Amino acid sequence: MNALSLPSAITPPSSGHVPVMLDEVLHYLTPAKGEAILDCTFGGGSYSCAILNTADCNVWAIDRDPDAIARGQALCATLEKAEGHSRLHMLAGSFGHMAELAEQAHAPLFDGIVMDLGVSSFQIDEAERGFSFRFDGPLDMRMAKQGRSAADIINTAPEAELADIFHFYGEERHARRVARAVVAARTEAPLHTTLQLAEVIRGVVPQDRSGIDSATRSFQGLRIAVNDELGEIERGLEQALTLLNAGGRLVVVSFHSLEDRLVKRAIQRALGKDVSFSRHDPRASLAPAAPSAFVALASKAIRPTDTECRANPRARSARLRAIMKRPSPSASLTKGLSA
């Protein structure tokens, strides 16, 4: 992989954003000259810029956040001015519709696809987006700024639905207790801000010994529900596998167990492994392995280094999985299998 000598102006829209597992992403993605790469979550542009700086390739980047699209379009203009044309192409929408977005943009099959499933630090750090309990902001959490907000759900959903959201999406052990407290609080007055909700949750959930804020899991569950994140991931993974060129690589970075479980199962299915049985079920050994068009680039999830976790605590929960579509018979298997 030969790095390009690109103009110094070609940098991510925000130098404050720190991409997670960037070295590992580039290692498994291995972008090369002339290739087409799809960045499914443009966000702050760190992955896209790193890919563009690594090889003379073209990057198509998806985001459903209008602010991210605006940042990307500004970068396209910078690239066009610096190089005479833009090697970055922005696609406005969610990666759960990537096949449709790629078709509308007349994009080719991709030689590499990267999916960063984490919430953008831009969204977390902007109080007005309502994602974080660290700041007092409107209880929103919508990535696309449309549809039901977090406040809509918190103030109107039945107690049982709230409990399910906190339990299944947030993996909160005290989900029913939190749901009861929310319903009791909103009976007095609607909850409109992140700090209002956080205080309600902290009042009934004991502090974790690890020091993690008591509101963390419930906020995660609510954010996932607002944005249908798990549904988006399932649809995105299914479509990504169909959009790969022969020899194309799919690299996925997840940030919590619910995401990683979906990624692992999608990769196992793509590899022809029967995931309908538990590995402890004796029937599992009898399930015939179907021929697969894919090969794993890593036998298990890759974790960030201790050095990265110390430098960027947000990387601690990250897991990377990678898979490759088998090259055509005439192509070499060398690329991508060196890992």
Automatic annotation (TrEMBL):
Catalytic activity: cytidine(1402) in 16S rRNA + S-adenosyl-L-methionine = N(4)-methylcytidine(1402) in 16S rRNA + S-adenosyl-L-homocysteine + H(+)
Residues the record lists as binding S-adenosyl-L-methionine: 45-47, 63, 95, 116, 123
Coiled-coil ranges per UniProt: none
InterPro entries: RsmH (IPR002903), SAM-dep_MeTrfase_MraW_recog (IPR023397), SAM-dependent_MTases_sf (IPR029063)
The keyword Transferase appears for this protein: yes
Gene3D superfamilies given in the database record: Putative methyltransferase TM0872, insert domain, Vaccinia Virus protein VP39
MF annotations from Gene Ontology: rRNA (cytosine-N4-)-methyltransferase activity
Main location: cytoplasm
EC numbers for this chain: 2.1.1.199
A biological process term (GO) from this entry: rRNA base methylation
Homology family: Belongs to the methyltransferase superfamily. RsmH family.
Protein name: Ribosomal RNA small subunit methyltransferase H
Organism: Acetobacter ghanensis
